[in-house]
Amino acid sequence: MNTLIVLQNGRVIDPANAVDRKADVWIQDGRITEAGSAIPPDAQVFNLEGKWVVPGLIDMHVHLREPGQEYKETVETGAQAAAAGGFTAVACMPNTNPINDSASVTRFILERAAGAAARIYPVGAISQGSNGAELAEYGEMKRAGVAALSDDGRPVVDSQLMRRAMEYASGYNLLVISHSEERSLSHNGSMNESVVSTRLGLKGIPNAAESIAVFREVALAELTGVPVHIAHVSTGDSVDIIRYAKSRGVRVTAETAPHYFTLTDAAVEGYNTNAKMSPPLRSESDRQKIRIALQDGTLDAIATDHAPHSILEKNVEFDHAANGIIGLETSLPLTLALVREGVISESRMVELMSVAPARILGVPGGSLAVGDVADVTVIDPERQFTYTKEMIVSKSANSPFIGWKLQGKAVLTLLGGRTTHNVL
Prior knowledge:
The protein is 30% helix and 23% strand. It is an alpha/beta fold. The chain folds into 2 domains: 5-52 and 372-422, Urease, subunit C, domain 1 (Roll); 55-361, Alpha-Beta Barrel (TIM Barrel), CATH 3.20.20. The strands form 3 sheets. Strands 1, 2, 3, 4, 5, 16, 17 and 18 form an 8-stranded mixed β-sheet that branches. Strands 6-7-8-9-10-13-14-15 form an 8-stranded parallel β-sheet. Helix 2 (103-113) packs parallel to helix 3 (138-144) and helix 8 (236-247) runs parallel beside helix 10 (284-296). The radius of gyration is 21 Å and the shape is globular. The relative contact order is 0.16. The model has no long low-confidence stretch (mean pLDDT 98).
């Protein structure tokens, strides 16, 4: 029998079970077990006074780059970065090389994930090669282990193909995740269309490039009755569309990323390629609307869109730099800033970063009920640190937050009762 683990004196925040109180959490044989009246002498005890004990965080949108671009990230290093950020599970997008549009690639990813520091949920491609022409084989990928479908990085341009994808996916109980982008408006753009882009002489991408595509997905979800999930929402216009759709009962969920509620397009000043992403950083007005949407439930989840790149892709002219930033190790402290500012509650944070991602993807997690697998994150909300390149666990260091003073850190991550990260 495995050693009993006792997480003692922490504040247990478990919104799925309406728990928010100081309590002990007992773990035996990899699962949450009933707390006893006396702790056995051979138990492993963690005194967590002043810490929060929450269900393991789940990131439903990451890029692990394997197979094909292992110099940027691997399944193993991505999982290690996830554990360091407090995540016990991540869903990895299919834009690898080759594209994850088949059972063989899905199986390869899951083989690489065996024994990793986080649970890995592969997301399969909507279309073959993510080229938007023909649907991939969903049944085959579902049997191999995909958790959802997306052509992330590329929008599905053909509306009829997207409709068929949603209908086909529903037969396998697979969620379609939309990269919502109207390419005719965003083509050759490299940042938000604004006074900043004009001043820097960079071609801008208007808000409408996202919101037009979000409107289409909402319309298709309403037409088919099939749920759709909107990835990386960046604009207030998209928020308004999603909010109205939800008020009408349309089956739509949506996520945003920490950079969209923390930064604006001002971060691009100086042609900072670590502030280049897709969709781009938007205006202060958009940032505020994203924060309100996290508060009122319009946005369901926070996901990092962790996108590792090497200096080969980032230390180039801004127009030619790759889109994306790493985010697994900064997501928690950046979200905790919303808690300190009173934008969201502690319980709402756990909902956004654990409960909702599990529910939306239909995977285990988001709960600390007796009998549940012991995927647990322990947070020190007061720990302050300066985020430096040297402390980054990911293989890549393309982050606009390097040098920032941050507060709040995952200090212990348990995966099925196994310690994957410990800086207590």
